[in-house]
Batch of 4 targets.
Target 1
Amino acid sequence: MKEKFKQFMIGRYGLDQLYIGMLVLYFVLLFLSRWFMPALMTGAMTIVITLAVFRMFSKNISVRQRENAVYLSVINRVKQTVRQMFQRLNDLPSKRYRECPACGVTLRLPRKRGKHKTSCPKCGTSFEVTIKF
């Protein structure tokens, strides 16, 4: 039986990160369906699991790889944003974040009250920063 399945899967796409993400979404919808709109959640769960199985058995490998690459780029941007938010929270007692008026780069400055002159390391523009607390 195992050999027959291996033969069947030759030339098919198989599992990837998007498949795992779709399974996680399926279980989140399953959990939420107990309390919020069960009929709608059941329909969404059916669509998600159908797409996941379709992708796994698909022979159009190049399209599935592109889909996975798009998924990974979105997930990596979300992860980076969350990491930056936690970094800012950790730095709250000692640092302040300000944007350069010329190039828009976010600068991490020491938390010293009052007006200070600083310069952007990227574009070299000098500007004044006021830190109130």
Note: Helices lie at 2-9, 17-32, 38-57, 61-91.
Target 2
Amino acid sequence: MTTLTFALPDGSTQTVPVTRLLNAGYAGRDQAEVRAHIDELAELGVPGPATIPTMYPIAPYLAQQTDVVEVQHGRTSGEAEWALVITDSGVLLTAACDHTDRNLEVHGVAWSKNASPDVIATAAWRLDEVRDHLDDITLKAWVGQDRRLIQDGTLGALLDPDHWLGVLAERGLDTPGTVLVSGTITMKSGVDQFADRWEVELGDPVTGATIDLAYTVRPLPDPID
């Protein structure tokens, strides 16, 4: 079983054995814009969902606190997201990056999500302590060794954590060890997402605190086939 460990603002740490990992998708708050995005993806061969927003079950071991993601080819990329982590003592909010196989995505989004890890930050905030200004928390991503900004927005662009906690409760999934990753915000045009490094940051404008993660994308050796 994968275990995640988080540093909290009060100096304590919390360890969470992951029992369930879920990836939200098409989770923008403006669902008309989401529909337009689905149409764009369809032109690239990515099948659209029957229902939006979506929620994909992912193998729990793919929730990883790592600084290296190994991939099979050059068309994989991350997505800046937040993650909810349900614990015995409450809900944590942290940064995440859903690394996705774009070649596999055209055959099935759920398959593409299971091909690489959801990278999770090693620090977290208690959701109750930031709930009153969640929409103002910033979400950014940079790619490459030269840190090219590829995503820049706020949590207000996405369906909020309480929406997803309600969905989990309806399905009996709001139990300790559940990790839900939020879905992502728009990528900037003209920035190559197929980079050798991804970095994601959550920023709290009220306290000035940040939570970040970074990892290198490393190709696996060529197979013998």
Note: The chain is about 15% helix and 40% strand.
Target 3
Amino acid sequence: MRRIAFLWIGFTTACVALGAAAAFETRASRIQAIKTVGIVSAIGEEMSLTQAGLTRLGATAQSLPISAWALDDLIVQQATRLLDGRFRVQSLTYRRAAFAAVRDLVVAPVNLLRSDPFKELVRSDVAPRGLDAYIVITRAKSKLGNGRNVEGVGLAEYRTLLADYGLIHALYEVRVIDGKSFDVIEKRAAAPLDNTGTMQLAGPSGPIDDTLGGSASSERLRAAVVDLIMRSLPVTFADMHLIGDQ
């Protein structure tokens, strides 16, 4: 019986591995067949201010408008530059606020089986239709220590009895959505840029520099956020096999 159990476990593991390999090959072949793409970006209209750990009673997350930073326009420009050459990138019109309003997603391993809230938005709110695929870049979430979720672009502070830790973050995820069936071909959250530092988020982030300033009008703060996005976007695209390794 023990031998049969071991054989069954081995057979099941092999089937899972083969299934994963087949799914990867299917996604890779579908991406390979893409010729025309459009880019949607909806992460940069506001910046969150979050405190976690030992915080004062009743402390709540806050947000500040940063639409003047034009982060989404910058992301579309950078994504176009990265993808142009392999794909024909076409400009889109879409309701950015509709994409930004979807806020219930958490940074997690790729899961293409669950229903995806962005599929219908691409189908109904994006023009022109008929492209081979649409690249959709939206906010993602991550846990700050064992405390609150942080989301998208923001500043986060985590307090302990011994020290305070500050992070600036730009958390996002990228979807490749089929332009005919509107299935999600691939989805991936941008990964951390390095593994150093006391506090870590599951996405692009870095320690707060005293020179950054604490308001949304700080040009250094904007520059730090832009740096996180510009450095992580080519890595994320490469991980998704949309471009060559960076």
Note: Residues 35-239 form a domain with the Rossmann fold fold (CATH 3.40.50).
Target 4
Amino acid sequence: MRLRQISLGLTLALSIASQAHADNGQTAYDKGDYVGALAYWQPLADKGDAASQDGLGSLYALGKGVPQDYAQAIAWFAKAAGQGLPKAQFHIGFAYLRGDGVTRDRSIAIGWFRKAAAQGYQPAQSILDQMN
């Protein structure tokens, strides 16, 4: 029982540490330090951190700190969306709405927006309201 508590505590601590690094990436991004954001997010994204994967997707979609590459953006957004991150689901929906790196498809976009909105992600609900 004690070993299980220690293991759970260690898992939680590592999760918090990972989130702290992802937050550092967001702070760098918000300051316009896109290379710094990339440096924080890349190793975490490679290890499966959804927030960092979404962050990398944003860098590639916008060409911030990296060459603009919609295929890379979609690949990173898809990894994060597959883990249920609503922000990434919204980003994929937006890509389908605009045709950025994927074939433009309003129906698929709506499906992604609905997934994000179902989790309470307000920007997704707002765009759904505008689309109706």
Note: DSSP finds seven helices and no strands in the chain.
